[in-house]
Every structure is written in structure tokens, then in C-alpha cells.
Design goal:
single chain, mainly beta, 6-stranded antiparallel β-sheet, 5-stranded antiparallel β-sheet, 35 strands, metal ion binding, iron, carotenoid dioxygenase activity, oxidoreductase
Length: 477
């Protein structure tokens, strides 16, 4: 646990350098940029955040060209970040329980949202966007990571408009152009789900709203060529402790184990109605992928048996992994004819952050890459990368234990590859022995042979959330 805690410290510096300390060799045919987002500040001028998800977003860019790599990181200069840096103190409450100084009285009825822009980073339509699902995106300059300001998608979004942190890139096919599909959630007694489709130029070409009964906490979704799938987790929300300043908004969410999970199947063709199909009660943060098969939709998802809630009285550094429900990979089959769903466990190892080949989003896939626990059972910090075939159960496993702690795996296919798993897997690994972060490149066809390149950074990076790779941005000034 002491090793794991080492990365839970702010990184206040912003760097810009070529990575010279490399074990192995960076592939010479690897060209592009790995972007990654996550909380960079875990305290505001010495006052700790209650949970890392309240930390200000810091984007890292690792650019590859001609067998070399360059590192750059920048904080997203959001309105809240700028105000606190100017004031020299904490000014905002956090969604996950961070309180301003002064106790509940100083926090009561202060319902302002601080957009921390810390969850995901995506390059689309020539724009680099830092995302946080409760508010608008921030646009960054791809080469320098300079914050350019609020992104409105040509006026479609307003300031503080919610915009999902998990957009999906539909790769298209012979009859459809690729597009970005994303959504927004406005929760309440009646929740509105807004679906957006954005073309290659960055223009919103489709937008439609759907209302679902009850409060909905939906972090991610899945798509197929014809449908969007949203899992409405069985939770309730009591806003009173939040309004009165005693709790963060996320701390007011409670799991309702007596209720089913509702799977909303929303056609991408707005002329058709949405369907609601019940599933056994569970909580889903992330989906790996979905595809259509006969009269069914198959969805591979990371499930918790209950909501892994935020305890206001518990310091996240002291988390008891043994008492938490592990996140595990499950396969759902949603049947349109019977209006039912079934699920089965693919693997019992605790895992998160699923990633599939980008060309297979919404299509049948054979392999899923995940960050996982080193131990085969129970919950634990993520120290390994696994590759699983959800149909056969075949898998490969690479571990950075005992001193390494991994982040999300990002799969990048090799140029001209014809096999689904022919490429590289990138992950950021916190090395507790040296208090630094390494950029690890694995051969995705054979994880077990270990890194083909291990790039040692000059510093640590706090544990992050999500990232993406683009071949359209590379190099350094």
C-alpha cells in the first residue's frame, strides 16, 4: 500500500523534453502522439482534495517519430484552475467530496461546478479536447497543449453544458463515413440523454434527446452501427446533504440492490423508438465494446456487484481494497425478441479500463486489453495488463508487480496490420522503487515477453484516467 500511495501526490511542474532514458528500442514505424488525461493536482496550495477525481486535469503528450519520443505535460487552464491559482487557495467544492475551508457552513448552498477537465482527451475534427462529463470540453493546441478555451462545437454547446467524457469513434464502413458519437446526461427525476454525432470536420450532424424515468448516473456507453446502449445503474440520489454542504454530490448516490439495471437501447436512426431491457442489478462504469448478432446485441462490460461509493469519512489513501467489490469483465446478451438480457462472467480477476482495436468499435471483436490486479482474485491496485478473448477465455498476462502500478492500456495497430491484435499496447506505469513514471510499450501479440521499450520519465505522474492515440499529431518544436 505504501508503494501504491507514492503516485498520489501532485505534479506541479510542467515539462517539455526528449526522453533519453530508454530500455529496449522504440519501434521506428511508430509515429504519432499518445495523449493522456488525469488529475495532476491532488492538493490546492496544501489542502488535499478528498478524492483524486476532484483534482485539476493535467494532459500529457508522448510524441513518437523516427524511433524517438518526446514528453510534454500541461495543466488545462480551466476557469476554476485559473481562479484558484490567482487566489492562492481553494475556492470550489468538488463533486467527490472535496470541501472548501470553513466547514459545512462555508459549503452550504454553493452549487457551483468546478470543471476540472480531467477525465479524457480526444483528437477529432482537427481539435484536441479535454473532457469532463458534467460540463463543456476545453480545447487545447495539439502541439503545445496550450489551453485555447471553451469548445462549443460551433455554438451547439453552451458554457457548462454537459458533454460525456467517453465519446466513441464509429469507424464506419463501405456505406458510412467515420464519425464521433457521444452523449450528454442531465439527471433528475426525469433524466435526459442527448446523443450527438459529429462528422470528420467536427460538425454536429445529428442531435436527439431521449427522456428516461428516474435518476441516471451514466459514465460510459457503447455503440453499434444502429444503436447506442446506456446502462442505467440502479441508484438513487438524495441531494439534501450536498445542498447543505455536508457531502459531495457523488457521496449522495446509493445503490438500490432490489432494482434491476435498465439497459436503454436507443436507435441512432431517430425515427425508431428506444427500448428498455432489464438486467440483473449491477453497476457499470465502463464498456469494452458492443456488436449486433442476429436478434441480439452483445456487450462486454466491466461490472461491480454494487456501487463502489465514496465514503466521506475515509481518506482515499487508506482505502481497504479487501472490502471493496472487484470490477470484473462480464458479457451481456440483449435479446430483442424476448426483451430480456443475460450475462455471464468472463474472468474473475479484478480489472478496469477496457480497450479494443479502434477499427472494431461497434463490430465483432476477439480481444480486449485491460488494466488488472496482479492477484487472480479479490480487489487490489492495478499492476498488470491482460489480454482476453471473451469467447474462448484465452488470455495473456504481463505484470509490473511488485513495484509497478499500471494505468489504462491503449492499443495502437501497426501500420498495415491485418490481424486484430497486431500492434502495440501503451500504458503508464508508476515505478515505486524510483518514484517515477515509465511509458511502457508492449507487443500486443505477445504481452508475456515483456516491454519492447520502457521509457523512463524524469518524474512521476499521478494516476490518470483515460487517453487516446492519434497518428495525425507527432514530433516536437
Amino acid at each position: 500500500m505504501e508503494d501504491w500511495r507514492g503516485a498520489n501526490r501532485s505534479l506541479t511542474q510542467e515539462f517539455d523534453y526528449w526522453i533519453e532514458d530508454v530500455e529496449g528500442e522504440i519501434p521506428t514505424d511508430l509515429n504519432g502522439t499518445l495523449f493522456r488525461n488525469g488529475p495532476g493536482l491532488l492538493d490546492i496550495f496544501g489542502r488535499p482534495v478528498h478524492h483524486p477525481f476532484d483534482g485539476d486535469g493535467m494532459v500529457c503528450a508522448i510524441s513518437f517519430s523516427n524511433g524517438r519520443a518526446h514528453f510534454r505535460n500541461r495543466f488545462v487552464r480551466t476557469e476554476g484552475y485559473g481562479a484558484e491559482q490567482a487566489a492562492g487557495r481553494m475556492l470550489y467544492r468538488g463533486v467527490f467530496g472535496t470541501e472548501k475551508p470553513g466547514g459545512w457552513l462555508a459549503n452550504a448552498f454553493d452549487l457551483r461546478k468546478k470543471n476540472v477537465a480531467n477525465t479524457n482527451i480526444i483528437y477529432w475534427g482537427g481539435k484536441l479536447l479535454a473532457l469532463w462529463e458534467a460540463s463543456h470540453p476545453y480545447r487545447l493546441e495539439p502541439q503545445t497543449l496550450e489551453t485555447l478555451g471553451i469548445e462549443t462545437l460551433d455554438g451547439v454547446l453552451g458554457k457548462d453544458s454537459p458533454f460525456a467524457a467517453h465519446p466513441m469513434i464509429d469507424p464506419g464502413d463501405e456505406s458510412r463515413e467515420p464519425c464521433l458519437v457521444t452523449f450528454a446526461i442531465k439527471p433528475g427525476p426525469l433524466t435526459t440523454i442527448t446523443v450527438y454525432e459529429i462528422d470528420l470536420t467536427g460538425k454536429v450532424v445529428q442531435k436527439h434527446d431521449h427522456q428516461v424515468p428516474g435518476f441516471a448516473f451514466i459514465h460510459d456507453f457503447a455503440i453499434t452501427p444502429n444503436y447506442c446502449l446506456f446502462f442505467q445503474n440502479p441508484v438513487s440520489f438524495n441531494p439534501l446533504p450536498y445542498v447543505l454542504g455536508f457531502r459531495g454530490a457523488a457521496e449522495c448516490i446509493k445503490f438500490q440492490e432490489q432494482n434491476p439495471t435498465k439497459i436503454w437501447v436507443i436507435p441512432r436512426d431517430r425515427s425508431h423508438p428506444a427500448q428498455c431491457i432489464p438486467a440483473d442489478p449491477c453497476f457499470v462504469f465502463h464498456h469494452a465494446n458492443a456488436f449486433e448478432q442476429d436478434d441480439e446485441i452483445v456487450v462486454d462490460s466491466i461490472c461491480y456487484e454494487t456501487f463502489p461509493g465514496v465514503d466521506h469519512n475515509l481518506n482515499y489513501q487508506e482505502i481497504d481494497f479487501d472490502s471493496r467489490p472487484p470490477a470484473q469483465l462480464w458479457r451481456f446478451r440483449i435479446n430483442f425478441q424476448t426483451q430480456t438480457s443475460q450475462r455471464h462472467l468472463i474472468d474473475k480477476r479484478a480489472c478496469e479500463f477496457p480497450f479494443v482495436h479502434p477499427a472494431l468499435v461497434g463490430k465483432h471483436h476477439r480481444w480486449i486489453f485491460l488494466a488488472a490486479a496482479h492477484q487472480p482474485e479479490g480487489d487490489a491496485p492495478q499492476q498488470a495488463i491482460i489480454k482476453i478473448n471473451p469467447e474462448s477465455g484465452e488470455q495473456q498476462f504481463w505484470s509490473a508487480a511488485p513495484k509497478g502500478f499500471v494505468g489504462e492500456p491503449v492499443f495502437v495497430p501497426k501500420p498495415g496490420a491485418t490481424n486484430e491484435d497486431d500492434g502495440w499496447v501503451f500504458t503508464l506505469v508508476y515505478n515505486a522503487a524510483h518514484h517515477r513514471t515509465d511509458v511502457v510499450i508492449l507487443d500486443s501479440k505477445n504481452l508475456e515477453k515483456g516491454p519492447i521499450a520502457n521509457l523512463h520519465l524524469k518524474h512521476h505522474i499521478p494516476y490518470g484516467l483515460h487517453g487516446s492515440f492519434t497518428s495525425q499529431v507527432e514530433g516536437s518544436d
